[in-house]
Design brief:
This protein has a single domain (70-313), classed as Spore Coat Polysaccharide Biosynthesis Protein SpsA, Chain A, CATH 3.90.550.10. Helix content is 38%, strand content 14%. The chain contains twelve helices and nine strands. It has helices at residues 23-56, 83-100, 123-133, 156-159, 163-169, 216-225, 228-231, 238-249, 251-254, 262-265, 297-301, 307-313, and strands at residues 70-76, 103-108, 139-143, 147-149, 196-200, 205-213, 257-259, 267-268, 283-285. Helix 3 (123-133) runs antiparallel to helix 6 (216-225). The longest helix is centred in the N-terminal third of the chain and has 34 residues, at 23-56. The termini are far apart. The chain crosses the membrane at residues 31-48. Keywords: Glycosyltransferase, Membrane, Transferase, Transmembrane, Transmembrane helix. Pfam families: Glyco_transf_34 (PF05637).
């Protein structure tokens, strides 16, 4: 009987391979997953906190305290008028401001780089400059160089800007550019919504005397009005026609604008330009006075020299 021999072991066994465990690999994958989940959680937390701050903590805007209540801004073109005349204009503003505790801000047109635009454009950076110098002023009153304050008893914040007074004065549903502009002043505007007050003359909006309420809207408005596109557009009447353009094309500006009767803020020395000055009016502008010749601004101003006596009586 034959028995099979057991298989013979090879004299050349395979090389030894140690037994490997899957545990370290599993641990590495889990650690990587945990790290990724943690980073994702921290990212979401950061985004949530950032979004919460932007929703619940809007940028803080400075609210003017009303000190001074009003700042009077006038831009002087010193190269074309005599020093005596300009000193008289300054004295007129200073006396009125002193009486009511207002500020004054006098600058030269040459103080601003207008990049070739007409000097009348200096009005806008001057007003913006005054807002920076007087951040707590409630109102900025721009008054043309060739104008005089005639009635020292009237205060801007009461005679013009008080909401109840504005609702009495506002000219509503009226063409912005007379006589037949299809864009009209808002009929539903309330006094407390108004940030910009001016008048019209026979030609249209007049930028020789206006009041703007100090604040963020005023900054936006002045920057829009002073846009380089408008300064280089070559409007016939420079910043005045630019103003008429933006008022008609930007409802956000028209919604803050109030037109008031011309004699409230901007009477003229001659009826030819608009409503003529009458005794008791706040201010008079020397309409179309010249720099030389017979009808100069200096000569025209003598007709209204009684403003000095008004301070002696008050």
């Amino acid at each position: 009987m034959h028995f099979a021999y057991p298989p013979r072991k090879s004299s050349n066994p395979p090389p030894f391979r140690p037994r490997t465990s899957a545990l370290p690999t599993i641990r590495g994958k889990r650690l990587k997953t945990i790290v990724l989940i943690g980073l994702a959680f921290l990212t979401l937390l950061w985004l949530f906190q950032r979004g919460g701050r932007s929703r619940h903590a809007p940028p803080a805007y400075h609210k003017p305290s009303g000190n001074p209540p009003v700042v009077i801004v006038t831009v002087f073109n010193e190269g074309k008028y005599g020093k005596g005349y300009l000193d008289m204009v300054k004295e007129n503003r200073l006396k009125y401001a002193e009486k009511h505790g207002y500020g004054t801000f006098f600058v030269k047109s040459s103080d601003y780089d207008l990049r070739g635009a007409p000097v009348s454009w200096a009005t806008l950076p001057a007003v913006r400059h005054a807002m920076t110098e007087f951040p707590d002023a409630s109102y900025i009153w721009y008054l043309d160089q060739n104008a005089f304050i005639m009635n020292p008893q009237l205060k801007i914040e009461e005679h013009v800007m008080k909401p109840s007074r504005l609702e009495e004065l506002m000219i509503k549903d009226h063409p912005v550019v007379p006589p037949d502009s299809i864009i009209k002043t808002f009929s539903h505007l309330k006094g407390h919504d108004v940030d910009f007050v001016l008048t019209q003359d026979k030609d249209g909006l007049s930028s020789s005397s206006f009041v703007v309420k100090n604040g963020e809207w005023a900054k936006f408005f002045l920057e829009t009005w002073f846009d380089p596109i408008y300064r280089t557009y070559n409007f016939q009447k420079a910043e005045q026609h630019a103003l008429e353009h933006i008022v008609q094309w930007h409802p956000t500006i028209l919604a803050k604008l109030a037109l008031v009767p011309q004699r409230i803020l901007n009477s003229y020395s001659k009826e030819k330009g608009g409503q003529e000055y009458k005794e008791g009016d706040l201010a008079v502008r020397l309409y179309a006075c010249g720099e030389a010749g017979e009808d100069t601004c200096e000569t025209e101003s003598q007709r209204f020299a009684q403003w000095k006596a008004a301070y002696q009586d008050s």
